[in-house]
Design a protein that fits this description.
Helix content: 25-40%
Strand content: 15-25%
Distance between the termini: 108 Å
Shape: elongated
Low-confidence stretches: 1-16, 107-111
Number of helices: 8
Radius of gyration: 33 Å
Oligomer: single chain
């Protein structure tokens, strides 16, 4: 007995497949990514499935990869590309709505003519190729032509969006590269290595940064900072902090006073994002390092046997709060030791206590006598920085062995 639809009961609830639902689902399967090639493939796959023939997209002569692409079915039944382009141009001129196609029966690779339907991929007057369908049986119906026109219109809209996305991504990339300034060069009495890993596959720069500034008497200022947030907006503020730091550092102030002035400047700009910052002033002649922190994690020291420990530093408020209150801490630093400055992305895991995160860093062992590049390679690998949840910036520094000054005792 055939099921009978009751008033108000959808056909699909009675087990009768709804053609409208199938077509709606077919349309939704087009444009699932921002990849133009994937969208072409989704379009031809649906077109071939709905018409029972072969479908392909014919790209324009001026485009890269001109010719048939994303062929689904037997390519032997497709018409000559010159005819298909001409048919699509005629269809576009005569169309009363977007994406209307032109049908014809043309000779294919076989002996007898096959029905062909050409529908231009057009949206807002912009054309992205031609959908060409052919099959070795009955001509295309008007309903099929109208449905393929709907598919091509959706595909064209997504391809336009994908190309606009690529264009904007290119502009953002150029801007990021302009913001990605190289750190200054330290004095030759110091070995320094820096590594920066922004979070996200397409990011080139974010809010984390490292800097080195030469000071008088062979001293070097080492800095790591972390602006709140990610992406281009954080990178813009990062550049502002770096520029201010270079200007302030030229006055050869101690680290805690550099932080105080940076905080004062940032506090006068309400739209500037807060930032944490750690400054280390290395003095190779005295064999010491003076540190000051604005809300930043403490540095680590790796000794000559490869053991890691953390250096306690008084922690003041982040930059941009206007609260000040930064204090210095000074430690001895030998040439056999490596000073490691880093941002929180290196150690932090979501939901993990920060003390546990720092303990994992302190548990990393290094080969004895390893250089600064080896130190960074090891710590990034052991802490799985490639899968970090935040931007990562790491700076490693080692003092050179100091030559005795005239009159100093040797031995």
């Amino acid at each position: 007995m055939e099921p009978v639809a009751s008033p108000g009961v959808p056909e699909q609830d009675l087990g009768i497949p709804s053609r409208l639902t199938e077509l709606r689902m077919a349309v939704e399967r087009i444009g699932t990514t921002l990849d133009e090639g994937v969208t072409y493939g989704e379009l031809t796959r649906e077109a071939a499935a709905q018409t029972g023939g072969t479908a392909a997209v014919l790209r324009g002569r001026s485009e890269a990869g001109a010719g048939y692409v994303a062929v689904d079915g037997d390519p032997a039944v497709l018409p000559d590309m010159r005819w298909a382009r001409a048919a699509a141009r005629d269809a576009a001129r005569e169309a009363t709505g977007p994406g209307e196609g032109r049908t014809a029966a043309l000779p294919s690779g076989g002996a007898r003519p096959v029905p062909v339907l050409c529908v231009p991929l057009v949206t807002d007057g912009l054309r992205y190729g031609v959908l060409v369908c052919a099959r070795d049986r009955a001509p295309f119906t008007r309903a099929e032509a109208e449905f393929l026109a709907l598919l091509t219109e959706r595909a064209a809209a997504h391809i336009r969006h994908a190309r606009e996305h690529e264009r904007v991504k290119g502009v953002v990339g150029k801007l990021q590269r302009a913001l990605l300034a190289e750190p200054g060069r330290p004095h030759p009495n110091l070995d320094v290595a820096i590594r920066y890993m922004p979070v996200g596959q397409s990011a080139l720069v974010g809010g984390d940064w490292c800097e080195t500034v030469r000071l008088h008497f062979g001293r070097t200022l080492l800095v790591v900072g972390d602006v709140m947030g990610h992406g281009l907006e954080a990178a813009v503020d990062m550049t502002a902090y770096r520029s201010a730091l270079r200007y302030i550092a030229s006055a050869d102030l101690p680290p805690h006073r550099v932080l105080r002035q940076l905080d004062d400047i940032a506090a006068t700009e309400p739209e500037r994002r807060p930032a944490t910052c750690l400054i280390a002033r290395l003095d190779p002649n005295r064999g010491q390092v003076t540190l000051a922190s604005a809300g930043h994690l403490p540095p680590a020291v790796i000794d000559q046997d490869g053991r890691t420990s953390l250096l306690p530093v008084p922690v003041g408020p982040p930059l941009g709060t206007g609260l000040g209150g930064y204090e210095p801490a000074t430690y001895k630093l030998a040439p056999a030791q490596t000073l490691l400055l880093f941002t929180d992305g290196l150690v932090e895991h979501r939901g993990e206590d920060i003390d546990h995160s720092l303990d994992r860093l302190a548990g990393v062992g290094f080969e004895s006598g390893v250089g600064v590049e080896g130190v960074i390679d090891t710590v990034l690998a052991r802490l799985d920085a490639a899968n970090a949840e935040d931007d990562v910036a790491v700076l490693a520094a080692q003092l050179h062995e100091r030559s005795p000054l005239p009159g100093e005792a040797q031995g």
